[in-house]
Hints:
The chain is mainly alpha-helical. It has helices spanning 17-48, 53-60, 75-100, 107-135, 150-160, 166-190, 197-215, 221-238, 243-252, 265-289, 296-302, 306-333, 344-353, 359-368, 373-399, 402-413, 430-462; strands at 10-11, 63-64, 73-74, 337-338. The chain has two domains: 10-191 and 241-413, Na+/H+ antiporter like fold (Up-down Bundle); 427-458. The strands form two sheets. A two-stranded parallel ribbon has the order 1-4. A two-stranded antiparallel ribbon has the order 2-3. It is globular, with a radius of gyration of 26 Å. The mean pLDDT is 85.
Amino acid sequence: MPAPTPTRRTFLGRLSLPERQYVADALRAETVGGVLLLVAAVVALVWANTPLSDSYATVRDFHIGPAALGLDLSIQHWAADGLLAVFFFVAGIELKRELVAGELRDPKAAALPVIAAICGMAVPALVYALTNAIGGGSMDGWAVPTATDIAFALAVLAVIGTSLPSALRAFLLTLAVVDDLLAILIIAIFFTSDLNFAALGGAVAGLAVFWLLLRTGVRGWYVYVPLALVIWGLMYNSGVHATIAGVAMGLMLRCTRREGEEHSPGEHIEHLVRPFSAGIAVPLFALFSAGVSVTGGAIGAVFTQPITLGVVLGLVVGKTIGIFGGTWLAARFTRAELNKDLAWGDVFAVASLAGIGFTVSLLIAELAFEGDAALTGEVKTAVLIGSGIAAVLATVLLKLRVRTYQALLADEERDEDEDGIPDVYEQDNPEYHLRMAEIYEKKAAEHRKRAQLAGASRDGGDSPA
């Protein structure tokens, strides 16, 4: 008897209904935050390149905070180390949920986005390294072009009016989650200064208390918020980047639902915190980090210096080739079959969209070239230019298929029986077909009635007065 032929798993296939709803809710919040991020970046650039630039520098460099606790920081520093800890807290929850209930739960299904994300960070770093090896530049900025900014990418989609099918949106979100994890590891490993073991021990002890309180079912923001602030302060003083505290606490939350729960604790807290992260924390970081001086000479220098050119090429070329190439190779070797409604060109377009690196790229630029304000500004300019080029490239590629995306999305969202569940998820349900038969019969009866009335009207009009 011949061995059964193994079934090929579909790549970018239809999501389950709960997963589709979660992805839609998560990306909706990120899209709003992304638009605010764009606005904040534009305000920062205008503020820093007008006669008011001195006031921008004054506000950005203003110090506030208790010096006795080692927290006398500038406004820019508070935004990068404080507010972004909230952003990474949400990223930690997203990662935990993906690992236990989302796309990363199944190792076979997780292989494609994980490999794509890894290649999407390794190839930009390689492109940067080759550019600087050939041009004699510094290798310190190798990590700058490795990060994807999901909020910025979604803002571009919102601005150009392109709605991706849910499978592509989920793939982009999963890429960003794995990307955030790798960025966290890069920050923790390569950008940790001299360690203060006493403060680090205190932070670890605080995290242990945080975990114990969660496991014993203790509730109340008034318990966790003060404890989180203490953990953050200790982590900052330890020499480890303070955003790591946010990630660690996010990973500790339970993201699986128990019987009778509509949402897990992690999902509930993410729902509460995400608007603050996307709508306040990240835009304020952009406001005080994206304000670089942009002149014709500065823009021209971006393409002539190996450090800045490496960043631009890493984002535009490295990200696209890395994600697309990693996805194609992974699909080939895992025998995954692309969704018949999509094409590899769609994956290439999403890969180019992932070349938009803003929030984490700016943060890594500040860490990589700390102490050299002029070079940090040049690298930030390169991040802005590279992200802009990637956004334009993705816009052109996505617009080529916009009608296909609109048709696929319309099919996904069609709900003719108006029961709140898209029809595509009910096609195997006999009750659905009975409801649809009743609906079609009702429409047919209404059509016959209108036809009879129209016929009677014509007869009456033709009859003698």
